[in-house]
Amino acid sequence: MAVSQIGSYFVGQIGVRSPNSCSYDLLGLCAAKLLQESGLDVRVLEARDRVGGRTYTKRDPSYGYVDLGGSYVGPTQDRILRLAKELDLKTYVVDMGEKAVLYFEGVRQTTSDTGMYLAQLNNPLGMLDSNNIFRKTQNLAQQVPLAAPWNAPRAKEWDIMTVQEFINNECWTSSFTCNSDFVFNLLFYDLSTTGWPGVIYKVWCSPHSAAKPTRSPYCITCFTWLLGEGERRVTSATNGAQERKIVGGAMQVSEKIAALLGDRVVLSSPVLRIDQEDTVAIVTTHSGQQYRAKYVISSVPLPVLHRILFEPPLPAMKLQLVQRMAMGCIIKTNTYYRTAFWKEKGFSGEALSDIGPVSYCVDDTKPDGSHPAITGFILAGHARDVCEMSPEERKQAVCEYYAEVFQCPEFLHPVNYVEQNWMADPFSGGCFVATLGPGVLTSFGRAIRKPFGKVYFAGTETAVKWNGYMDGAVESGERAAREVLHAMGKISEDQIWQEEPPSPDVPHTPFEDDPLEKILPSVPQFLYILLALLVLLLSVLWVYLF
Amino acid sequence: MAVSQIGSYFVGQIGVRSPNSCSYDLLGLCAAKLLQESGLDVRVLEARDRVGGRTYTKRDPSYGYVDLGGSYVGPTQDRILRLAKELDLKTYVVDMGEKAVLYFEGVRQTTSDTGMYLAQLNNPLGMLDSNNIFRKTQNLAQQVPLAAPWNAPRAKEWDIMTVQEFINNECWTSSFTCNSDFVFNLLFYDLSTTGWPGVIYKVWCSPHSAAKPTRSPYCITCFTWLLGEGERRVTSATNGAQERKIVGGAMQVSEKIAALLGDRVVLSSPVLRIDQEDTVAIVTTHSGQQYRAKYVISSVPLPVLHRILFEPPLPAMKLQLVQRMAMGCIIKTNTYYRTAFWKEKGFSGEALSDIGPVSYCVDDTKPDGSHPAITGFILAGHARDVCEMSPEERKQAVCEYYAEVFQCPEFLHPVNYVEQNWMADPFSGGCFVATLGPGVLTSFGRAIRKPFGKVYFAGTETAVKWNGYMDGAVESGERAAREVLHAMGKISEDQIWQEEPPSPDVPHTPFEDDPLEKILPSVPQFLYILLALLVLLLSVLWVYLF
């Protein structure tokens, strides 16, 4: 029996080898690994000449290694942590440092925690607004069933209401509305979103920002992201999604599984077509090689799935869904310096700004202090602005950005620069994850994981938890593999979805609720309280005077 | 010298043969025809086993022929009219009849002109609102440069403002707002639009309709459509886009060009990849056949363009644009009856309704009275609802719809039924045209016609006039062919875009302005006038009394 996993030519980036997950290409390899461990004969067809997909660790003696794709892991991402441990990979805690820079609308300030939005707002009413909207978002998110968000009671409404509209409806002060506008301009303008929920919240906290009204992501997407682990888990470094990186680079997860699978992984084999007959699926690659399989797992990123010609053709709903998914616009850069001089000046290397081309940057010096570097993310509109530059021109623009944001001309003299322009990557179509337009989730979302004959679909975009992360990629790959095992009668239907036990090495502790956040009134409640106090005062005065 | 035109496998629907235009597949053949007439050696690679793409004329002795794809032509569509005449094809005037049915929210009424929105509104203020918004839309549209709508002064704003938001801002009465809501629910819900501007305006006119707030198309798209020829040209039958059909079917345009090109048209040859070297582009088909060409014209519909693997890869902006374009959801049906009994009952066969599955239907009896039939369009959300039914089930649902809408049980007994589910069509991805999400046009639109090396891009989606129509397909195919001629030094740059002389056989007359439409005040103007009259009256009374 052959189980073919296909990574079509556009799956290339996803990368590991075969059906690699839609993202981070872990999926394909994870599925193949699980199936092989169950005694099946698998083949992994990888479009690129490397495994790893949207994880991409580049190596060079001058800078050691750098993750130019997916990189961070953290508590509650128990699947990727389990897999990394099994493959004998170590993680290290990222040093976020102390002093980050926020630079919006020409106003520069430093802060010890860009995540502490409450502390950033210098307007007390704005603080109430901010607190209330985060609390309300969390509460509304509880109504969304993660595995089928289209069934949420208000799904249709939330699927066409942008987060900006939600904020405009809920907020009483302009300061918070302005802040939130910036998010959309920076990350979500015209839906070329990065799909990076962590940044959404981080940028919400920036006190000095404003932007023209624009499009933003849809509430239901936001709610679904947040519901998984909660806003603080998603946005935090310590105890959150950005806590750790994998020593040696995230692509090693794929490389090590590929080594286990040996010659069952076939590189540079983009899939051309999948023909399904009664008992067999025939997978043909660009070079004409054919694989006959009882089952196929596709880990091709959904926005580029129709690169594969299906015969019979894909069902209408799946064909329409994949046309309505688009990958985000991202260029990830690493700029190297002789010394980490910014630390001597008291900067952590972290900065958020609206001046572009970089939107968010963070220190990427190795834990032992070697290869001092800053990782800079060029996102959405800024990525479009510079995507036609040469890498040399982008390097210059990035260095000028650092010099300006940190007010430090030493940044103009890097010793090295590497980048990955995911926008131009034909095998993944973009990064980090796919985004959906208005109404798409509720109208077409049901088709996302639906198998088609002998073909099953993986990809971090199909994950229920940590959707869009490496952990979601592992979840989806293993789920698809268990769907195949169920179809073969080897496991029961209720074994397809499995809970993951908590990682013993990277424990997660619940975030302590700040009692203040729970009891602080919203702006209208505050005004009612004021009014009640006024009435009370007047009553007392009335009694006292008459 | 070889000029290859490619119709990738997904281009199939587009249809004619080669680079066929993105839509109506005329493009590819038109380009090939023009290039061959200029003395070049061309090859047309057509993905399907037929030419014609999104025009698709099905033939059978039981019903003669039927256009299951693009069909209508009309005055000012001078390019397709010129081409049809050159190919010795005739057109006939569609008989729209007299009595159409409007059936919304359970209220059925008949009307002599579904396009006469002014006559339909039984609320005088609503009529002022309606008149004002149509007038204002036309005026704003004048600010949009057709060839580069992203350069309009308020492009960014209009590209994220939905038509619904525009109407909500501009309208004072709920009756018109309700009417317009219906459009979005029917045609544009969650952007699964049909891209059919004619219907937008037709449905705007329906007096009894309402829908939950939802997403709608973006103003700039609407303005661009309208600017081409004006709202009445787009929506009208007589003197408008729905005036005529081609005798024998629209696909004949492609078939006749294919006959002229002979064995230069290669059917069933979906393109797999395009490799560009210094002086040559190598086009490889799925079957491994290779064509070496100096230039290539792609008429693959843009939403499915990344089915072709480009080496070097497509530029970032083009790759991102095509991910953000999606084809509409449409199932076109023709139901045949023994007699045109509806005409005996005084119905034209035209109806608009919100009950589904059909949204709009119209008589399709042949001009000689043979093969009595109703054409029914199943659109957007309704198409999603029934796309997983069997054709037999859909036939039943369509007949029940006609019986209900026309209150006439004879519709339950058809003698024949044919349909084309474009939603499931892998070569075109859908119909009629591609739609764009919020902000996409201004952010990525510039890439739409931009050549990539030796590859030029056609498709009705790239047309400046009659974008989305067969005429736009011809325009884009001929423009792309002239771009190639210019690149070869055979014509100058200013010869690329050519004005088309008016068709002598299908003359267009200007629509007469109804003076009332010009002078009727808007609702606020009307209220000001009332107020002024009141002040005047009070002044007179004051003078008279004191």
UniProtKB/TrEMBL annotation, chains A, B:
TM helices/strands, residue ranges: 526-545
Subcellular locations according to the entry: Mitochondrion outer membrane
Necessary cofactors: FAD
InterPro entries: Amino_oxidase, FAD/NAD-bd_sf, Flavin_amine_oxidase, Flavin_MAO
Known EC number: 1.4.3.-
Keyword Membrane: yes
Gene Ontology annotations for the cellular component aspect, listed alphabetically: mitochondrial outer membrane
Membrane topology: Single-pass type IV membrane protein
Residues engaged in binding FAD: 46-47, 271, 461
Keywords linked to the UniProt accession: FAD, Flavoprotein, Membrane, Oxidoreductase, Transmembrane, Transmembrane helix
Binding annotation for substrate: 377
Primary location class: mitochondrion
Gene Ontology MF, one: primary methylamine oxidase activity
Reaction equation(s) it catalyzes: N-acetylputrescine + O2 + H2O = 4-acetamidobutanal + H2O2 + NH4(+); a secondary aliphatic amine + O2 + H2O = a primary amine + an aldehyde + H2O2; benzylamine + O2 + H2O = benzaldehyde + H2O2 + NH4(+)
Record domain Amine oxidase: where: 28-485
Record-stated family: Belongs to the flavin monoamine oxidase family.
Task performed by this protein: Catalyzes the oxidative deamination of primary and some secondary amines such as neurotransmitters, and exogenous amines including the tertiary amine, neurotoxin 1-methyl-4-phenyl-1,2,3,6-tetrahydropyridine (MPTP), with concomitant reduction of oxygen to hydrogen peroxide and participates in the metabolism of neuroactive and vasoactive amines in the central nervous system and peripheral tissues. Preferentially degrades benzylamine and phenylethylamine.
Name of the protein this chain belongs to: Amine oxidase
Native organism: Branchiostoma belcheri (Amphioxus)
Gene name per UniProt: LOC109471637
